[in-house]
Structures are given as C-alpha cells and as structure tokens.
Amino acid sequence: MGEASAGASSPKKRLGILISGRGSNMASLVEAAAAPDCPYTVALVASDKPEAAGLAWAAERGVPTFAQSPKGMPKAEYEAKIDAALRAAGVEAIALAGYMRLLSDDFVARWRGRIVNIHPSLLPKYKGLDTHARAIAAGDAEAGASVHIVTEELDGGEVLGQARVPILPGDTADSLAARVLAEEHKLYAKTLADWLRD
C-alpha cells in the first residue's frame, strides 16, 4: 500500500496532443511521458487528417487516437467533435505539435491557459509560416523554436521556453529547419513538463 499512496499525492496530468502530419514532436512527448518523473501522461493524440502518419505511430504504441477530417463541415462543428473527444479522454491540457489549423477564439476560450504550442522561431519574431526562410532572408545570426501559451492572437501568447540555433553560411530553409527540429524535440518535452509541474 505504501508504494501506491506515495505516487497518489501528485497524479499525472492527462495531456491531449493535436497533430496534422508525421508528429515528430508528438513522438518526443510520448517518449518523454515514459519517464517515471514525467508529470503528464498522453491521454489522446488527435488529428484533423485521418491519414496522418503520427496517428499510426501513436496507435502502435498503445496511445488512444482520434481523427476527424474538417472537410465539408463548419469549423464550429469540427472543433466541437475534437473538443468532445478530448473531454471524453479526460484531457486536462493540450499540446499542439505540428497541428496546421488555426483554432477558433471560442475553442481557445474553452481551454484558456491550458493549450501550448511549439513554433519554429524565436518569438516574437516571425509569427506564422515560412519562419526559417524569413530568418535567413533577414540576415539573422540565429533562429530557433519557442514554446508558448496559445491565445486568440496567432503565436502571441506567453513564451515558456526557447531553444536557439545558429544560422550557418549556406543554410537553406530546409537545412535550418532540420537543425531546429532536433532542438524542438528536447525543448518541448522539458518545457511542457516544467509548465505542468507549476
């Protein structure tokens, strides 16, 4: 009985992860969740693309998954289905990991302060898309990634953590993106764990 009650004092937070593609950041979060001291467990991986490779990866590892294509339905109806799936899984916090749809203000309001995202730039620089090409074109010495709270403003919420990557001579958007992604995998798991402990 002693062992069970020792862990019961701080139950792990139930995390939902939203993806749209291969889900490499999602995979790093799932793998981090296996550590005994990790403060979260992955309760659901959900996607707007039923064919997303990350869904198959998660399912193979026993992580519950949910897919709902938004095609042919109003945004509010689509988001209601995602919201219902997250709530049915007992999700307490949401991590966006390569989820390529903008969340509505209503969805963000329902989960206020409980959604985080990883963005491939050193926010507040380069919100939105094409971040690596924009950093190179601007002549920046470094690029990187930011984990931030999701608000109604695109990539505008409080920054919880950042990783910096030097921009090298001859870098392309693709070569820079690959180096930033490697840092994203480490940054997201650590920042998310710290945030959920607080």
Automatic annotation (TrEMBL):
<keyword id="KW-0808">Transferase</keyword>
<feature type="binding site">
    <location>
        <position position="75"/>
    </location>
    <ligand>
        <name>(6R)-10-formyltetrahydrofolate</name>
    </ligand>
</feature>
<comment type="function">
    <text>Catalyzes the transfer of a formyl group from 10-formyltetrahydrofolate to 5-phospho-ribosyl-glycinamide (GAR), producing 5-phospho-ribosyl-N-formylglycinamide (FGAR) and tetrahydrofolate.</text>
</comment>
<feature type="site" description="Raises pKa of active site His">
    <location>
        <position position="155"/>
    </location>
</feature>
<feature type="binding site">
    <location>
        <begin position="100"/>
        <end position="103"/>
    </location>
    <ligand>
        <name>(6R)-10-formyltetrahydrofolate</name>
    </ligand>
</feature>
<feature type="active site" description="Proton donor">
    <location>
        <position position="119"/>
    </location>
</feature>
<protein>
    <recommendedName>
        <fullName>Phosphoribosylglycinamide formyltransferase</fullName>
        <ecNumber>2.1.2.2</ecNumber>
    </recommendedName>
</protein>
<comment type="similarity">
    <text>Belongs to the GART family.</text>
</comment>
<feature type="binding site">
    <location>
        <begin position="23"/>
        <end position="25"/>
    </location>
    <ligand>
        <name>N(1)-(5-phospho-beta-D-ribosyl)glycinamide</name>
    </ligand>
</feature>
<dbReference type="InterPro" id="IPR036477">
    <property type="entry name" value="Formyl_transf_N_sf"/>
</dbReference>
<feature type="domain" description="Formyl transferase N-terminal">
    <location>
        <begin position="14"/>
        <end position="191"/>
    </location>
</feature>
<dbReference type="InterPro" id="IPR004607">
    <property type="entry name" value="GART"/>
</dbReference>
<keyword id="KW-0658">Purine biosynthesis</keyword>
<comment type="pathway">
    <text>Purine metabolism; IMP biosynthesis via de novo pathway; N(2)-formyl-N(1)-(5-phospho-D-ribosyl)glycinamide from N(1)-(5-phospho-D-ribosyl)glycinamide (10-formyl THF route): step 1/1.</text>
</comment>
<dbReference type="GO" id="GO:0006189">
    <property type="term" value="P:'de novo' IMP biosynthetic process"/>
</dbReference>
<dbReference type="InterPro" id="IPR002376">
    <property type="entry name" value="Formyl_transf_N"/>
</dbReference>
<dbReference type="GO" id="GO:0005829">
    <property type="term" value="C:cytosol"/>
</dbReference>
<dbReference type="GO" id="GO:0004644">
    <property type="term" value="F:phosphoribosylglycinamide formyltransferase activity"/>
</dbReference>
<dbReference type="Pfam" id="PF00551">
    <property type="entry name" value="Formyl_trans_N"/>
</dbReference>
<feature type="binding site">
    <location>
        <position position="117"/>
    </location>
    <ligand>
        <name>(6R)-10-formyltetrahydrofolate</name>
    </ligand>
</feature>
